[in-house]
Predict the 3D structure of the following.
Amino acid sequence: MKATHETQNAGLDMASLSLRQVNESLQKAEAGSFVVSNPRGAHALAAGLVSPIDVTVEGHVGYYCGGMNQKASITINGNAGTGVAENMMSGRVHVKGDASQSAGATGCGGLLVIDGNASARLGISLRGLNIVVKGSIGHMAAFMAQAGNIVVLGDAGDALGDSIYEARLFVRGKVKSLGTDCIAKEMRDEHRTLLRGLLDAAGIGPEVDVAEFTRYGSARKLYNFHIDNLGSY
């Protein structure tokens, strides 16, 4: 099936369509809503979308679903494998289940919402994407994160924010350990306003109080090489 700018609603059943056919239809569409059924863990599904279309995936997906997304709104009614929303540019990706490692890696813009838990290396090398995780996250989240925001309602694993630059991290629960050059920082009014906006955007109501979160960010000791910090690099 071919989707065009005239398509308003379409069903794409992967029991009869190949991954290539489904992605081609989504990538060519300029508008409309699409429901992808029987994804059966397909890799790179709904990747490289460049138009403001709505895509709902009914089931679990494999690696790199929603990768390089621009403008599209993608909802995954299941779990997502490695690298969901990897290198995302804009738009929205919503995982209703859990996400595997490297979710949102190198993301530049848009919003990634994960209703469940996220595994290791969430948001590594983040470059502007906003990520909200309603559960807990694994180790090495926000490694070398340059810009953007990560909000975690649960707990965080080891080495949170290792070698972080200017990304902002908000964690409601416990942090097992902080990575190199990552420290707890003051939560000012501007950060409370930002956090409230991100929670609202993720559909999280006022019952979750921004006062329950701790902000983490860079201590800015590794921006320039200094021999005294050699062991930290």
